[in-house]
Design a protein that fits this description.
The chain is α+β, with helices and mostly antiparallel strands. The protein has helices spanning 32-49, 53-63, 69-75, 85-121, 140-154, 168-171, 183-186, 207-215, 256-271, 324-329, 346-354, 367-371; strands spanning 5-7, 10-12, 158-159, 165-167, 190-193, 199-201, 220-229, 241-251, 277-282, 287-296, 313-322, 338-345. It has 2 domains: 15-121; 141-373, Bira Bifunctional Protein, Domain 2 (BirA Bifunctional Protein, domain 2, 2-Layer Sandwich). Bound molecules: 5'-O-[N-(L-tyrosyl)sulfamoyl]adenosine (YSA). 5'-O-[N-(L-tyrosyl)sulfamoyl]adenosine binds at residues 204, 206, 230, 232, 238-239, 242, 244, 284, 286-287, 315-320, 341-343, 345, 347-348, 359.
Length: 376
């Protein structure tokens, strides 16, 4: 078979292998010019009906592509008598140029329309007001913990954290609450495991007293914020999970006056210079003497309201002078060292500061409640 001969970008094939086909249409005795005119008319009419780029691609395949009608005509030129061939070739090539130009023009037109259509579909109205993103806020309890840590840092206390799961040894024994002590029942303990040694969810942050003292020598000044758990009925002022802030200071010559000074300063920094504090005798096996610590209600100014249950006072927590047995239990010499400790209810402090009247709101996950603290 002879090799195709390039001619202005078109391959002219030998007559024997390629007869004039023009898309298998029956052209009978039509002259080449008549065939080209017919092809021209049909291509133009068909192009006018093309409405999108897919249609245009198919039009191109039908008329200009390697198997398209015009290409077939060009390939068949070899069968045209030699005298007529140059003119037929010029006419065919001129039609190819014309159809190619028409194709390009239509392609530009359709691309522009297509782009416009896509732009219209994707249009963004930049004049619409934006949607305000929801901004998260720090939980009021976490905020109070930060605030308390800052206040105590200025008084020389370091903030430390401890495990929420404790052995009964740390939660009770080292706090002078042995197994048979009636006070052990007071704590409504959630026991996690009682096989070898009783493991509990800490009922207060006080286990960190012994842990801290075991790890350091006096002087000690720490505050320990964190969760505590008790198996007790929930009501407006009691939840089964809540937060406490433990405080511990041990050194030579520490007295109850130091404890009163520190907690009084805390109340003023947190609730305002005009706040009054109250200390009343209380009993905790790990302190002697023990006190409960209350602040006059900032919501009603001490007159009595729903938040303070009409008493004018809000109890913040328990406190006292560290019991000599607790000091001795961790190897401190009680003849040399004294100390004070306290355990404050953090939710109660937030309630007092912001007038919240139900402790259950803090773990209730109601965003309407939590969002109120965003702007404070
Ligand atoms: C006492 C003496 C010390 O030397 C050191 C710490 C303490 C406090 C002691 N460990 C304790 O837990 N005392 S307490 O049972 O009275 O709790 C202290 C505070 O935690 C309460 O005043 C209250 O504010 C808060 N609280 C207790 N149970 C709660 C609660 N808050 C919410 N829900 C509960 N169920």
């Amino acid at each position: 078979m002879a090799t195709p001969r390039p001619c202005r970008g078109v391959f002219l094939l030998p007559v024997k292998t390629h007869r004039l086909r023009a898309s298998d249409r029956d052209h009978g005795d039509m002259t080449i010019q008549a065939q080209l005119d017919d092809l021209h008319a049909r291509a133009a009419a068909s192009l006018a009906e093309v409405v999108d780029l897919d249609g245009l691609a198919s039009w191109e395949r039908s008329f200009l592509g390697p198997k398209g009608e015009l290409t077939q005509v060009l390939r068949g030129l070899g069968g045209v008598p030699a005298g007529e061939r140059p003119a037929a070739g010029r006419a065919a090539n001129s039609l190819k140029t014309e159809l190619s130009a028409a194709y390009d023009a239509r392609a530009r037109q359709l691309s522009a329309t297509d782009l416009e259509r896509r732009l219209a579909a994707d249009a963004v109205d930049v004049t619409l007001p934006g949607r305000a993103p929801t901004i998260g806020t720090v939980h009021p309890v976490s905020r109070m913990i930060d605030e308390l840590s800052d206040i105590f840092a200025l008084m020389g206390f370091q903030t430390v954290f401890g495990p929420e799961v404790a052995t009964a040894h740390y939660n009770f024994d080292l706090l002078n609450i042995p197994g048979d002590h009636p006070a052990r029942d007071v704590w409504d303990t959630i026991v996690v495991d009682s096989n070898d040694e009783e493991i509990v969810l800490r009922t207060h942050t006080s286990p960190m007293q012994a842990r801290t003292m075991e790890a350091t020598k006096p002087p000690v000044r720490v505050v320990v914020p964190g969760r505590a758990y008790r198996y007790e009925a929930q009501d407006a002022s009691h939840d089964w999970m809540f937060h406490q802030l433990e405080g511990l200071a041990v050194d030579e010559h520490i007295t109850l006056a130091d404890l009163k000074g520190v907690l009084g300063e805390l109340a003023r920094q947190l609730f305002g210079a005009e706040r009054r504090v109250r200390f009343r005798c209380d009993y905790f096996p790990f302190v002697e003497p023990g006190v409960d610590f209350a602040v006059d209600c900032a919501v009603c100014g001490g007159k009595g309201c729903r938040v303070c249950k009409h008493s004018g006072w809000l109890e913040m927590g328990g406190a006292g002078m560290v019991h000599p047995k607790v000091l001795a239990g961790v190897g401190y010499d009680p003849a040399k060292y004294t100390g004070f400790a306290f355990g404050l209810g953090i939710e109660r402090m937030v309630m007092m500061k912001y007038g919240v009247d139900d402790v259950r709101a803090f773990a209730g996950n109601d965003l309407r409640f939590l969002r109120q603290f965003a702007s404070i």
